[in-house]
Design brief:
Blueprint lengths: L1 E5 L3 H12 L15 E3 L5 E5 L5 H6 L5 E5 H11 L4 E6 L5 E8 L4 H7 L3 E5 L2 H11 L3 E5 L6 H4 L5 E6 L3 H5 L2 E10 L1 E6 H6 L1 H16 L4
Parallel strand pairs: 1-3, 1-4, 7-8, 7-9
Antiparallel strand pairs: 2-3, 4-11, 5-11, 6-9, 6-10
Bound molecules: 1-O-pyrophosphono-5-O-phosphono-alpha-D-ribofuranose (PRP).
């Protein structure tokens, strides 16, 4: 049995068409079931639904043989899990967005940086944010949040946020503006190294199928 770890939402929705092109259909829609293990049309493959930030943990420790995780989540996990134990063979090119610094409209970020002001920044991505600001020589106090980062500057919890921006709709709706892109993000296929060695015959065709399917995605 092979186990694929996915998270509900964008990762699941964008992975589904790739799986379909590789001949795999998932038996149930995660939005209409509370089940966490979903069978597929293949008797030897199941999907498990986990929190996006837990996908690398499941794959790293062999709870899942492979999974799909955003580069943001992967890089952040590297800081705590270490990069060992997982292959990252394919940039699937899905769930594209960018990690950016955003501030309330009217906050002069460039001026604050020039002045050497100490900024309070709310984010779920403390490791990536710390690296980014350290490389720029900007002094920051990081406030770790687990979601709804956009709220923090609105109620005076932070001067700025570091968060994912896709359409920009969430920032606009909350009166924030993107002031500094940090990196482009897309979802990656990750594979447990031991599983890839012991289950090569079953796993490699799936990895190859997903790679081929992702190559055909219009960018
Ligand atoms: C992400 C991110 C932003 C939003 C950006 O949240 O944290 O809030 O999407 O997308 P937009 O630019 O298209 O508005 P997501 O919906 O993935 O949920 P999360 O807060 O649980 O990460």
């Amino acid at each position: 049995m092979l186990t694929l770890a996915l998270s509900k939402g964008r990762i699941f929705d964008d992975t589904l068409p790739l799986l379909a092109r590789a001949g795999i259909t998932v038996a149930e829609d995660p939005e209409s079931t509370r089940k966490l293990i979903l069978p597929t049309n293949r008797a030897d493959l199941r999907v498990v639904l986990v929190r996006a930030s837990d996908v690398p943990t499941y794959v790293r420790y062999g709870g899942a043989d492979f999974g799909v995780a955003g580069l943001d989540v992967l890089l952040e996990a590297d800081a705590t899990l270490g990069g060992d134990g997982m292959y990252r063979p394919v940039d699937l090119g899905i769930a594209r967005c960018r990690l950016s610094v955003a501030t309330p409209q009217g906050f002069d970020y460039a001026h604050a940086v020039r002045q050497g002001s100490r900024l309070r920044v709310a984010t779920k991505y403390v490791h990536l944010a710390r690296e980014h600001f350290a490389a720029k020589g900007v002094h920051v106090d990081l406030v770790k949040l687990y979601g709804s980062m956009e709220l923090a500057p609105l109620i005076g919890l932070a001067d700025a946020i570091v968060d994912l921006v896709s359409s920009g709709g969430t920032l606009r709706a909350n009166g924030l503006v993107e002031v500094e892109p940090i990196m482009d993000i897309s979802a990656r296929l990750i594979v447990n190294q031991a599983a890839f060695k012991t289950k090569t015959a079953a796993l490699k065709p799936l990895v190859d199928g997903l790679r081929e399917a992702s190559n055909n995605i219009p960018i």
